[in-house]
Design brief:
- There is one protein chain.
- By secondary structure, the chain is mainly alpha-helical.
- It has one domain.
- Helix content is 69%, strand content 2%.
- It has a two-stranded antiparallel ribbon with strand order 1-2.
- It comes from Stakelama sediminis.
- Pfam families: Acyl_transf_3.
- Keywords: Membrane, Transmembrane, Transmembrane helix.
- GO terms for molecular function: acyltransferase activity, transferring groups other than amino-acyl groups.
């Protein structure tokens, strides 16, 4: 039986899911250094089998981030009280750290990529002053870029579109329609049906670009996920439906992953040469993506809806951790390359350095008031930890 709270009260389970989703993202990006997939910097020790566990989360990790961000946005709207103030709050909380990130945090990532992959010989200072803001392409990299901070840019755009839509539709009927549509088995079937259309019909085996104006597959998957999370933040009816169907969703997610795993292990590229076979792979991806998110929300609602003293701090730290983590990973691996360490040692050092560096970035940014907006925190500390709301 699920534990329900009134819509005006905080759902601790969703807080823990948000923290877990971003922690998993950090671990995922560390692992990217060691697998064959393209990344900004690569270890000399590539572990091919590690692709298989990565595929267990690859399909749904970003959809989950947008769902939990939409859910958090609903809570922020309740606190601010009106769409205009909400838009102002979100713009300040997202665009300031986004600008800071692009100017200060991100540039070392393309520099490391150019040095390690293309033999770029200039120093970082030269690169930052002469190349990063040149608005041109160097060895296939368009500069400047936002790299991992694309998520923040997309989140701001989705929020502004949502606010504009809400201003046009001033009615509770949309929420009521959502409750009816997703208040039963639709909460499981509709997201999967939509994603099946995205991956098998509209964008079969198309990769994301994270370039905003040329990223149809990402918008088709993530904007609805954000809207779903936002609407879920005001719906006890749909949360109860998730409580009824999350176990079925978990089974479907595992079946989707098992299908992908079987293809990767036994058929790989040969399997993906035929159109029907591509549809099977993309369909399994869609089923895993849609059902895993519902299963994880159900688990958070059923088992994690409890408060602990560390929750408020971790919830607040999520955004600063996100802003800095990839720069630490990329630059950390760059520093480790000349040492010739074994792969397990590189991974262990990267993991410890990333967690420690993220924590230091958060604590320093939190303590120095002028830095707080730059690292994604409110300018003034909340009077009570309970009132602290994550921006993502």
């Amino acid at each position: 039986m699920t534990t329900q709270k009134p819509a005006s009260m905080r759902h601790y389970g969703m807080d823990w899911l948000r923290v877990g989703a971003f922690a998993l993202l950090i671990l995922y990006h560390i692992a990217m250094v060691f697998i064959p997939w393209n990344y900004h910097v690569k270890s000399t020790h590539i572990v091919h089998w590690a692709v298989l566990p990565m595929l267990a989360i690859n399909a749904w990790r970003l959809s989950l981030l947008f769902v939990v961000s939409g859910y958090a946005s609903r809570a922020l709207l309740r606190r601010t009280g009106n769409p205009g103030e909400f838009a102002r709050n979100r713009s300040l909380r997202l665009l300031i750290p986004l600008a800071f990130g692009i100017i200060v945090v991100v540039p070392v990532q393309p520099w490391v990529e150019l040095v390690t992959k293309y033999g770029f010989t200039h120093s970082f200072a030269w690169f930052w002053l002469h190349d990063f803001f040149s608005f041109r392409t160097i060895d296939g990299l368009f500069l400047p870029n936002w790299n991992h901070l694309w998520f923040v840019g997309y989140l701001w755009v989705y929020t502004m579109v949502l606010i504009a839509g809400a201003a046009l539709i001033r009615s509770n009927r949309v929420q009521q329609f959502f409750d009816r549509l997703f208040g039963g088995i639709g909460v499981l079937l509709i997201p999967m049906a939509w994603l099946l259309m995205v991956h098998t019909w509209w964008f079969p085996m198309v990769g994301e670009t994270h370039m905003l104006f040329d990223d149809g597959i990402a918008h088709a998957a993530y904007f609805p996920a954000f809207l779903f999370g936002f609407a879920l933040g005001g719906s006890e009816t749909v949360m109860r439906a998730i409580g009824r169907w999350w176990t079925v969703a978990a089974v479907l997610a595992m079946l989707g992953y098992a299908t992908i795993l079987a293809i990767e292990l036994h058929w790989t590229d040969n399997f993906l040469q035929g159109g029907t076979r591509i549809t099977v792979y993309a369909g399994a991806h869609a089923v895993q993506q849609g059902s895993a998110v519902i299963a994880l929300i159900g688990i958070a609602d059923r088992f994690w809806n409890h408060n602990y003293p560390i929750r408020a701090t971790l919830t607040e730290a999520v955004f600063p951790f996100y802003i800095i983590h990839q720069t630490i990973i990329v630059f950390g691996m760059y520093l480790l390359l000349p040492a010739g360490l074994p792969g397990w040692a590189q991974f262990a050092i990267l993991l410890v350095a990333t967690v420690a560096g993220c924590w230091l970035f958060y604590r320093v940014g939190r303590a120095i008031v002028p830095l707080r907006p730059l690292v994604g925190l409110r300018l003034h500390k909340p009077q009570r930890k309970e009132s602290s709301l994550a921006v993502v």
